[in-house]
Amino acid sequence: MIEVKTLIELISLLLTTCAIAFTGFRWMSARLDATLLMWRDELQKQHHELHDKHDLLRRDMEQLQRDLPLQYYRREEQIRQDALINTKLDALASRLERYNEATKQRIICYGQDKETA
Predict the structure, then answer these.
(1) How distant, in Å, are the alpha carbons of 1, 59, 61, 68, 75 from that of 64?
(2) Over the stretch 33-64, which tens digit does the pLDDT of each residue have?
(3) Residue range 14-25: average pLDDT?
(4) CB environment 92-102: b (16+ within 10 A), e (fewer)
(5) Of 1, 41, 48, 87, which is least surrounded by CB within 10 A?
(6) Would you list the domain boundaries of the chain?
(7) How far apart are CA 3 and CA 1, in angstroms?
(8) Among the residues of the chain, which ranges form H helices?
(9) How far is CA 113 from CA 5, 41, 57, 106, in A?
(10) Cα–Cα nearest to 79, from 90, 89, 87
(11) What burial class does residue 109 get, using C-beta atoms within 10 Å of its C-beta: 0-12 exposed, 13-18 middle, 19+ buried?
(12) Cα separations in angstroms, 8 against 20, 53, 113
């Protein structure tokens, strides 16, 4: 049979092992809690930074939408402006052609006048 002394030693060894295990688990749990709290704080900080950036982008977008009609050069306006410029250039080209023809006629007439004289 087991002696009482041996039984007490086994029970004390078992209790000591349980106490060490319990202390280790408490220590690991505390470390895990600290790590989780640190991660949570970091995530909250990142969330606030992203929220601030989102607000800034939203304000910039609203400002762009307000300013866009004032700064935007519409496609139709560009086409109209190009057509006007092209019309003016065509008119100028036509005048230059007429001037060229008139100048050629004068040169021809001037040359013929010299030959007859």
Answers:
(1) 92, 9, 5, 6, 19
(2) 999 999 999 999 999 999 999 999 999 999 98
(3) 96
(4) eeeeeeeeeee
(5) 1
(6) 1-72, 74-117
(7) 6
(8) 4-71, 75-116
(9) 151, 102, 80, 10
(10) 87
(11) exposed
(12) 18, 66, 147
- Reduced to 3 states (helix: H, G, I; strand: E, B; else coil), residue 107 is helix
Token code pair at residue 101 = 């023809």
∠20-22-23 over CA atoms, to 5°?
65
Residues 40, 45, 46, CA angle at the centre, nearest 5°? 100
Longest dimension (CA), the chain: 160
Quickly tell me which residue has 């866009």 as its tokens. 68
Read off the tokens for 77.
């306006």
d(CA 82, CA 77): 9
Distance separating alpha carbons of residues 68 and 60, to the nearest angstrom: 12
91 CB-side CA count, 13 A: 6
Gyration radius of the chain's alpha carbons = 48
